[in-house]
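Late entry, written up from scratch paper. The run itself happened at the end of the previous shift, but nothing got recorded in the book at the time, so transcribing now.
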Amino acid sequence: MLIPCVQELTSPPRASQVVKECAQACMHTTYQFLYDNANDLYARQFQEKVSTDEPGPSLKSLDFWHRLIALLVSVIEEDKTTYAAVINQFPQEANMGLISAYCMWTRLSEDLSAALEQHAAASNRYCKTSDYMNLCFKVKWFYNTHIAEVPELKSVVPAYPSWFEPFVMQWLNENDEISMDYLRNAYQRDKKDGFHRSSGQALFSNSVVDVFTQLNQCFDIMKKLECPDPVVNDRFLNRFSQTVGKVLLTYAEVVKADFGHWVEFQETACILMNNIQQCRVQLEKVYEAMGGDQNLKEYTREVMHDLQQMLNDVIDEMAERYSVALRPQILAKVKEVNKLLHQISSNSKASIESEADLILRPLMDHFESSLSVYADICEKTVLKRILKELWKITMYTFEKQVVLPPVSDPSALFLNLSIPSNATAKLSSVSQTLLSNVSSQLPNNKLLQEMSKESANLTLRNLTPRHCQILDIALDAIKSYFHAGGSGLKNSYLENSPEFQSLQYILSLYTQTTDALIKNFVFTQKSQDKPAVENSVGELSIQVDLFRHPSNGEHKVTVSILSANNLKWQTSGTFRPFVEVYILGPLLADKKRKFATKSKTGVWSPTFNESCTFLLGAGSDPDSYELHLCAKDYCFGRSDRLIGLTVLQLRDLTASTDTLGLGTSGSCACWCALGSRLNLDDTGWTILRILSQRPSDEVAREFVRLKSEVRGQDDSVAKTTGSAPSTLRRGKS
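Output as recorded:
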């Protein structure tokens, strides 16, 4: 008998504990019986025919576990309703229903986790992914219904999500391909239908709706898993975020690839851009449903945020491509603005504000008609992207058509200059060589590309100070229009856009003095000798000494032209090379600016040994000056022909400061490579354009001529290799 045995113990256990242990022993035996005879018991109890050759677990089927769980549920229900009502002496310490649930779950966990490990490790999985997902949902239901209330398990994270993790991941992997196929089919249907709006109120088409229907269905299944293990759930969400990213980026790529066919169709192009924006909107909703910033792990948040940014970039790219269709319209209207601007006389009595309104009327009328349409067919975000592109196009076109109208003939730079009669022949040669070489001089230069597109009849037209004032007011009016009282583009964007700043900068150059423009040129054009380094046509040996007088602060520049070497030149007549040296910089109008050596006859490596001195004046900064050196072939009775040229900036001589307080001084002896032309960027050409519009300024006229000179094509020689850049040997004076 149990009671006498217990009574004989020195420290007998509590009666409730004895009852609990006896119940657990019975339940373990019951579980084992169910496990060993699951198929037969299930067939008898549920009156269902079980067709299987294997009595226990199998790699080819998961049916055994469904049957076992059904039998376990029956046992637990019976223990709750039948035995718990009879063995109720210790309801708090020995609840038969809870003890049964705990024992059955413990044994099932051991067996099912081991079996699923075998399935996960198998090289070939015979069961479908959906079978594993169904079993996962069955286990989840079993746990939530019968196990979650067990006191011993309330504070423990259930382990079953980790058993099924490999199979859920497999399902997510398979869902990738399903979603991709769904995406392609949805897009093709949408394209076939002409990308019509999905509804009367929507601004996007059906393909976006279909894509997110599929993604949301996938996410709904994940939500129904109700994964109680936060670590495993985080991995599920991260994997799902990769699916979302793959699908949406593929959709964006497909739309981008097709977009070029629709840019000429306003409504369809806008719907396609709206589709990408709607992807961003729906993505944000999915992100919040997944947990948002508060609950998602950092790596998952990064995936989703990066995806948002990539979609945002796609909209920018599409808007930029769409803007190509807008450019001809803007160009035509800005040309009308330019025409009206130059019809205004400098002596006009009308107010500047009224004249600004007058010249802007064609452009503003165009904006009013077109933007009202975009407001009706574009999502707000897409509309702002289009506004940004319109703003950039407008500012760029104003710069190239109004402030700096392009010319096809670079000799137009000289049309307004007052040329001395004895320089006419030389200038003609300069213009012709510049014309013949301009395409090879700066092949990637946007300014020259624009210049080559205009008609040959277009002449350079000056902007008067009144024109500049009108343009300032006109630009403010356009900026206010695009800002639209705060509902349009931000003022910070408008004012900081590169196109607007470039236009403002060029307008500001018009108001600068010739000295200021030349100083700006010297500071910004730091690689003028690039062609000489890349393809030398000869070398000059020079000695340059810079000295600052300690008492009056005047700078003196002494240039010694020693010799030339290996001048690459072909001529049918007598070769008579000589060298010209110019000092270029501010405040030189009343000072000596040029020196020329005597010519040498029939020598391709002549020796000159001639010197000259230039004075810069008190208070001048040597960094604002440069030496312009040209080797030429002297021709009696016709224009001298350019052999090569280069530039040496005085900042190269002032790398160190006199420690005795005598001022900035320096010297160098160097071989300077000669090139067939100078290398200028957009700023350099802009300054030349502005200076060319000052016909009465001798310094401006000379500067434009020097910087525009190019060796003629007929005088070119084959490129040589091994030309080294200039080598400086510096020393303090």
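The two ends are 121 Å apart (CA to CA).
(Scratch paper discarded after transcription.)
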